[in-house]
Structures are given as C-alpha cells and as structure tokens.
Recover the amino acids of this structure.
C-alpha cells in the first residue's frame, strides 16, 4: 500500500462543479456585503472629510501639529547663564548642547537659541 490512500478514489466532475459554484456564491455574497457596508458609511465619511477641510478645523490641526513638534528647552538658566535670565524660549529648543555630570557623564541637553547664545557668550567671556 502506498503513502496516499486516495490513489483509487474517483472524483466526479459533478462534485468539482458543486464546490466551485458554492465558492463562487460565497465570494459574491462577501463582495456584496462589503459593497453594502461601504455604501452605508460613505455619507458619514464624506461629512467627516468636509468638516476636516474647513479653515477653522485646519487651523486647529495645524496648531496641534506645531505643538507636537515643540521641544522643551532644558537649560538650567539660573546656573548656565545667570546674567541673561528671562531670555529662554521654553518650548523652542533648536539645538542640543552638552552638559557634563559627575553622576552620568556627558549628556545632550535640548537648548533654545537664546539660551545657547547666552551659554556661548558666557563661555567665551571666561
């Protein structure tokens, strides 16, 4: 006896046709269900898209995107540049400065432009 037990089994064309017809019907029904679902939600999607394109909504989205891009300035101003207090743009870090710590070593610190300039001026002044 061989490894395959189905060597002598006859498969009729009728069964193949029934299976193909059944699969085709399932495919048609699934496709119709998807089409019906999309058509039902299309008005809601169109209304949402129309609302999202309003100028006042676009302005809110743009402000939110800008807020998410903000990096806080982590300069310890009173210690790093005490003569230039009040120059910090708290949420406007544009570069990374180096801070040396005995505990953790060199650390990158986000700095805004005014704090970076004040630090540089203090370092150059001595």
């Amino acid at each position: 006896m061989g490894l395959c037990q189905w060597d002598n089994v006859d498969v009729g064309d009728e069964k193949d046709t029934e299976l193909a017809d059944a699969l085709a019907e399932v495919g048609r029904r699934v496709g119709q269900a998807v089409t019906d679902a999309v058509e039902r939600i299309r008005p809601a999607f169109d209304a949402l898209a129309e609302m999202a394109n309003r100028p006042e909504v676009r302005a809110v989205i743009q402000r939110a995107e800008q807020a998410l891009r903000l990096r806080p300035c982590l300069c310890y101003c009173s210690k790093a540049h005490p003569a230039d207090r009040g120059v910090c743009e708290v949420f406007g870090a544009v570069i990374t400065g180096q801070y040396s710590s005995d505990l953790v070593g060199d650390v990158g610190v986000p700095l805004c432009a005014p704090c970076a300039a004040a630090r540089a001026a203090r370092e150059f002044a001595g």
Remarks:
- The longest helix spans residues 13-52.
- Residues 11-69 form one domain.
